[in-house]
Design goal:
With 373 residues, the chain is an alpha+beta fold. It is built from eleven helices and 13 strands.
């Protein structure tokens, strides 16, 4: 009886040890190679404003890099101003113009040139439910107003339409502040932006698609590129080279790409392009991505610009595979990694639409090819 009990205990012990050892070897194990200081993860909640949240996070990181000062900037300030510009465009194009919550990184930087930026305290961005964001109702109301206006019920566009349109924005999001308090002084949003050393002209967007000529500025055919801003177009290998160089040099970048791909799992904190079936629990061999297959996925509308995020570092898994540490805007509680995830280099090659970087974070040889000073 005692021998049996001893054997049983040994079996349980070694079985438990085996499971423990197995648990120790399974799963993704990431080691950060570069991990650049950024602000805390935000939550865009029930809005389609990832473009503002990702780019605002990027700007906050740039301010830390430039002058060692951490600011909490208002994302909804840029959303408010974008709606004004979209409304004007919708009217001028007689309704033949993309209108909605979406946007691009350049929408934020372009606005800073005109309107500067403000802190979150100065512009929380929700008048009827502070601390929460909902823009679907607002978006539909604004669109309905514009659709009535372009029919010209008074036979011509009335001069007060923009006042009425803006009043709806102000009711939902709040009126734009004329000043913001910084270091005990009230200054304009434009002066605030200038005082931080942030220069909007230092930032460019880069893409990689072979239906446009390389090493030129191109207008990328994206519904959310409503302002028709240009992108520098590069071959895929140099596109990836810039992503790595940026992070190695202590900069970060804004990522615009597709998260509807099967290999993307924010919950499991990874985005991968595995050979065969996808496994979010363990590293596997990934597919080889070329410019041709990347172009095919863009042309057949599989790869779309459905989300923007902030890339804050480089990492490797236990097999030496390169990943990009990614700050999402779905809240700190959205996964077990505090709202971050790791996207593999292969995933980036296939699913990246474009990136925004500081022009000084580009290798010299590539800058010369692009004609960037």
């Amino acid at each position: 009886m005692k021998t049996r009990n001893l054997l049983a205990l040994l079996v349980v012990f070694f079985y438990s040890f085996g499971l423990f050892a197995q648990d120790e070897t399974e799963g993704y194990k990431f080691k950060d190679v570069t991990d650049i200081k950024v602000t805390n993860v935000k939550d865009q909640q029930r809005t389609g404003t990832c473009w503002s949240f990702a780019t605002t996070s990027f700007i906050e990181a740039e301010l830390i890099r430039i002058n060692k000062t951490e600011y909490d900037l208002s994302e909804m300030y840029f959303v408010h101003n974008a709606y004004i510009n979209k409304g004007l465009g919708y009217i001028r194009y007689h309704g033949k113009f993309n209108f909605g919550e979406g946007g691009q990184a350049h929408d934020v930087v372009g606005q800073i040139k005109k309107y500067g930026f403000v802190t979150q305290d100065a512009y929380p961005g929700n008048m009827y439910d502070p601390g929460n964001y909902y823009t679907s109702e607002l978006d539909q109301l604004l669109k309905a107003m514009l659709d009535v206006l372009i029919t010209k019920p008074n036979r011509k566009l009335t001069p007060v339409w923009l006042d009425a349109y803006t009043s709806v924005l102000n009711t939902y999001l709040g009126s734009i502040p004329e000043t913001v308090e910084v270091d005990g002084k009230n200054i304009s949003p434009v002066d605030f932006a200038k005082s931080t050393g942030f220069n909007p002209d230092d930032y460019i967007e880069i893409t990689s698609f072979n239906h446009h000529p390389y090493y030129e500025k191109v207008i990328l055919e994206l519904p959310d590129n409503w302002s028709n801003d240009p992108y520098y177009n590069l071959p895929l290998d140099e596109f990836v080279e810039i992503m790595n160089y940026v992070l190695q040099e202590g900069y970060t970048f804004v990522w615009d790409g597709d998260v509807g791909f099967e290999g993307f799992s924010h919950k499991n904190q990874v985005a991968v392009v595995h050979e065969g079936d996808f496994d979010y629990k363990n590293p596997k061999t990934e597919k080889e991505i070329t410019d041709k297959c990347r172009q095919k996925e863009f042309d057949n509308l599989t790869t779309t610009d459905d989300h923007l995020m902030h890339i804050t570092g480089l990492a490797e898994d236990q097999n030496g595979t390169i990943y990009y540490k990614t700050k999402n805007s779905w809240g700190e509680d959205s996964n077990d990694f505090g709202g971050y995830l790791y996207m593999s280099e292969t995933y980036m090659k296939l699913n990246t639409i474009a990136i925004m970087v500081h022009k000084d974070a580009i290798p010299k040889e590539i800058k010369e090819k692009l004609g960037i000073n």
